[in-house]
Amino acid sequence: MSTALTHAAATQQFAENGRISIEPNHKRIRVFFGGQVVADTTRSVYLFEKGLLPVYYIPRDDVNFDLLEPVDATTTCPWKGKARYWDLVVGDRRAEQSVWGYDVQLEDSLDLSPYVAFYWHRMDAWYEEDQQVFVHARDPYVRVDVLPSSRHVEVFIGDTLVADTVRPRLLFETSLPVRYYVPRIDVRSEFFTASDTRTSCPYKGTASYLSFTGSGGSAPVEDAAWYYPFTTAEASGIDDHVSFYPDRVRIVVDGAEVEN
Asked: The organism sits in which domain of life (predicted)?
């Protein structure tokens, strides 16, 4: 049995230095670049490092090394050791130093030698099973819950009431403030115009934005609100709903103003 498989079958493991840990990820992970599948595995692990987002580490046996060219560059991490790098080359496309791995286990750390990792944004696409994932690896300890509610939610910009509903959807996301999503039909659309801004979230999808055009003496507000034209399964309850930045508008819930 390979070391990678042993890791995948284990529970979370912590380094003696207390800075990193790994945990098995049983989802199928695929990485695409230049129309090629660069990695395809059901044996990856999450690597957690204090203060950083989790990273997928993929068994080297599940990576297409025919597409990788070793380079001389190295870096040293006090918690993981000395990393070597590879360029990823497909046809005339090259992602420089986009793959790294630790060949030698650092004393008081974990053995990462069976794995390599990829710089997320240098790849073309990432998938968990058959669902594309954006921005970064999904943290298994982040949960998103969308719940229907009968709370009275009012949204003001200046003195202008721009949204009013008693049927919001409340989105609870681990470690973040509650977000109040208002049905589109309860938003005064005449006060808003579409923005060119787009952002992506690995847990909810890709958001589009709305800017307040100005009304009743209130100044315009760029990107005052956002919505998800298409959501992930976890966030499906906020389809056709709009949420607002509490630091750009005034949100009142059951008569109490929401703090920024």
From this structure: Bacteria
